[in-house]
Amino acid sequence: MDQEPGGPQNPQGAHELPRCYRHAERETGIRCTRCERPICTECMISASVGFQCPECVRTGSGTGHAPGASMPRTLAGGAVASDPRLVTKVLVGLNAAVFLLTLILGDQLVHRLTLIGGAYDPQLRDVVGVAADGEWYRLVTSVFLHQEIWHIFFNMLLLWWLGGPLEQALGRVRFLALYLVSGFAGSALTYLIAAPQQGSLGASGAVYGLFGATVVLMRRMRQDLRPVVVLLAINLVITFVAPGIAWEAHVGGLVAGAAIAYGMVHAPSGRKRVPVQFATCALVFLVAIGVVVGRTMALT
């Protein structure tokens, strides 16, 4: 270790180098250019400037990787991307684009895309809905549909806050699967309980899926859960107190998101990781499909 001038000298340790923070038995003169922790030659990963440690690369702080080495992976095994919010940005943009279309085309588009089990629509002058006319697409299109400015504003704000860290931790493909399946599960529970007359629209089911996944992820990383739990509790109170809110979508998405995230972040490393993660997503999706099919049979 370094000593101040004039201090006691240690013949054996005078020139001792720092030790790699991941391999305590290895001395090294290399430090991560991001966190400045000492790293050995096995741990160092080439970057545009100097070398970075595996943790900084894995969490997105760095972007380089050693030639011939395997691509750095996220906590859930996804590839580390140069833009960890790309999918989040696309989802926000897609929701905003659909909202603009509703402003341009009016209620006609809303009535065509909203989730409804089956009822006579005076606007369209027809019986519409999943059960009434086999319009299964409504279970998905309703997740991207908003009619009020305050509705899309708060949903997109939460999507931005929660989506970025989750996308960075899970990887793009896993994050997108989490969002879509959570949204579909929220639609399925709404369809089960609120169908056939009550309509539902909005990204809340998918957003609550991100809430559930955030809790699971933060617990896995042993982070302080209090901020996100308080925020979730406030939103749940609003869900059950405020009128006109489809609580079924919120609860369905929350449960689905937590289940999917648990399977993703707790899947065993190695070859079993991807099959376990895929099976978790597939199981949640199939349960939602079963709910939809069962409710449709009951209605028809």
TrEMBL record:
Membrane topology: Multi-pass membrane protein
GO molecular function, one term: peptidase activity
Keyword entries, A-Z: Hydrolase, Membrane, Protease, Transmembrane, Transmembrane helix
Pfam families found in the cross-reference section: Rhomboid
Keyword Transmembrane recorded: yes
Transmembrane segments: 86-105, 144-163, 175-194, 200-218, 225-245, 276-298
Principal location class: membrane
Gene Ontology BP, a term: proteolysis
Family indicated by similarity: Belongs to the peptidase S54 family.
Name of the featured protein: Rhomboid family intramembrane serine protease
Peptidase S54 rhomboid domain location: 134-265
Originating species: Streptomyces sanyensis
Location in the cell: Membrane
